[in-house]
Amino acid sequence: MSGLITRRGLLGVGASGLVGLGLTGASPLTAIAAGEGKKFKIALSNSFIGNKWRIEMENVFKAALQMEPFKSEVDGSWFNSGNDVSKQSQQISDLIARKVDAIVVNAASPTGLNGILTQATERGILVVSFDNVVTAPAVLKVNTDQVAFGRQLAEFLAKKLDGKGNVIMVTGVAGTEVDQDRNKGADEVWAKNPGIKVVNRYTGMWDSATAERNTAAVLPSLPPIDGIWCQGGTDGVLKAFIAANRTLPPTAGEAENGFRKFMIGYMGHKIAGMSIGQPPFLSVISLELARRVLNKSYPKKDITIPFPYVTDETVKEGVTVFNNKDIPDSFFDDFTDSGPNATVKLCIEAALNGTPCEGKLDVNLPAAA
Fold first, then answer.
1. pTM, whole model, 2 decimals?
2. pLDDT tens-digit series, residues 186-245
3. pLDDT tens digit string along 83-122?
4. Both ends of the chain: CA-CA distance in Å?
5. What is each CA distance from 155 to 183, 233, 284, in whole angstroms?
6. DSSP string computed for 192-207
7. Is 54 within 8 Å of 131 (Cβ atoms)?
8. Of 283, 256, 234, residue with least CA distance to 107
9. Kind of pairing, strands 165-171 and 227-230?
10. Which of 120, 126, 190, 334 has an alpha carbon 20 to 30 Å from 40's alpha carbon atom?
């Protein structure tokens, strides 16, 4: 796909340490940091870049930095740590030494970064944690309700299966709070439906290729599967079922384009499904929260963003699913919001390659209380 930042390329960026605007002089996007007057120095600390969701999350962050009001007010930067807590901690320590104004964090561990992030807040640096949030009390949190995410997917399956049947659980990146909370939400539902048996639970790393490979490895040893509960990589799981000549059961999963294509008919199959999105634009919400707290136009408070979802009855081609051959199956369709009360509206180019959208970027944070 033209212009798409590759997984390999971004992993290479993460390995090189601090990357972006204001932290290196070699970035091709240094124009973002150009201009007169003081700008807020805001850095994105991302733990993991090995899947399409994380790529989209970083891409929309980069696109936002090139759009007003951020273009004029923010000197932005970003870096990745390869899901290494020690490396992410060291990179944050470097940011503290550089005296940035704010750090937005997608953490490798809910507790492993608390010490260094507390150091940052004690030195007057605003810290906003999103997606995989941390537990440090002085850190602001931006997220969806992850327990509700897992619960809602499981409730969909329990209803479809009339409370009985064999289910597999495809989990996320182990050790993250998101993974733990989603699993907790699902397990609450299974406990209320003793007729549902979880016959296998394995990681998909929130990645379509990994989920497909791991599903293919376990399927030969499994009994007939009546339902799939999947945190991410849902399209890969379904493709593994097809390759194994398995019937595609009702599926509850993430917002991958390929998964949603199966809900309208794809590869000769049409499924009953629910697709919930953990929106990649959480990075942009965190960026806006940091900007507004720093300019004293918004209070220091946690934010919970409602997650968009569709079912096989409500999914709409060209709006919440894309048959365009240039859009890969692993692409997450919840890169933007819609409707009159949308949190943020972004163009698809922003998610694909970090290209800014036309016009000003309006981010609608919840009403300040």
1. 0.76
2. 999 999 999 999 999 999 999 999 999 999 999 999 999 999 999 999 999 999 999 999
3. 899 999 999 999 999 999 999 999 999 999 999 999 999 9
4. 44
5. 13, 20, 30
6. H-TTEEEEEEEE-TT-
7. no
8. 283
9. parallel
10. 334
